[in-house]
Amino acid sequence: MQSSTGKTRVAVIFGGQSAEHDVSCRSAASVLRYLDRGRYEVLPIRISRAGVWEIGRDTGTGAEFPPQPMRSGSLIVALGVLRTVDVAFPVMHGPFGEDGTLQAVLVAAGVRYVGSGVLASATAMDKQFTKTIVAAEGIAVADGVVLRAGDDDVTPADRERLGLPVFVKPARSGSSVGVTRVDDWSGLQQAIALARKHDTKVLVEAAVAGREVDVAVLQHPDGTLEAGPALEIKHGAAFFDFDAKYTAGAADFVIPADLRPDQRGLLAETAILAFRALGCAGLLRVDCFLTENGVVLNEVNTLPGLTELSQFPQIWRAAGRSYPELLDLLLSAAR
């Protein structure tokens, strides 16, 4: 279905109530800038930190929101707005956007959208569930302990098994928000407290010695899956934390990574297997450690960063696909 102008009406939805609100807005700014207005009629929708849906105006390269934007006072009104578009592009990271919540709203509205469905989004957002599912398919993952509400320590036996350092992280958060590297067990309680600010479920994971490599997966409209060239992350931080991710010059991306053919093949095979095992759709970024013994999956992102300088677009640019072409493909594969 197309608008009276013959263009496809696209709702670009961004912002949200998670700690990744600003990251989402940065990603959306790139999407709004590069969407081809010759093909698309764009409706910007920003969700405030308070959960208010704000309807903006497309400027041709971005979005403009008046001082008192038109606000949807209820979910019913928001659904009405969404039903006027042909396809939605959720540019949302973290809880309420990447975890199936927004996807459920879009399903209720009967709107096609970019990316994974409700179940795959919710499952992939939870690092514990992700690890359980991919491990059942034979993919290696880091050893770890799950701390649920009321669990505030790691047993001596688990400490012995995991060793140091360990990484303490919220189970359902992204962009390394709330993640701490613990080099001494005396710092464990503080790290758990920080992670608990973002999630009641916390993971304590053993460190994995290896090269940090990302693989991007795209699903074409016919269902074919394609893995892009592997990207190696090089940085000087203790780990690839929020600052290293979003501070200009703090990290270097090497694309394609300097790998043997067998390593490239194993990484691509692992990423596509994870995509299928989790039931994903459209796109996925798979973050791995390449160790002496093979590939260890760290985590996955069903809606990875989409600024023009983020890993996912850079990987496909290295493969010869421009940012506007990438957006076209993602929208054409929406369902």
Automatic annotation (TrEMBL):
Alphabetically ordered keywords of this record: ATP-binding, Cell shape, Cell wall biogenesis/degradation, Cytoplasm, Ligase, Magnesium, Manganese, Metal-binding, Nucleotide-binding, Peptidoglycan synthesis
Listed HAMAP family: Dala_Dala_lig (MF_00047)
Protein name: D-alanine--D-alanine ligase
Domain ATP-grasp: 131-332
Top-level taxon of origin: Bacteria
Location(s) in or outside the cell: Cytoplasm
Organism: Actinoplanes oblitus
SUPFAM superfamilies: Glutathione synthetase ATP-binding domain-like (SSF56059), PreATP-grasp domain (SSF52440)
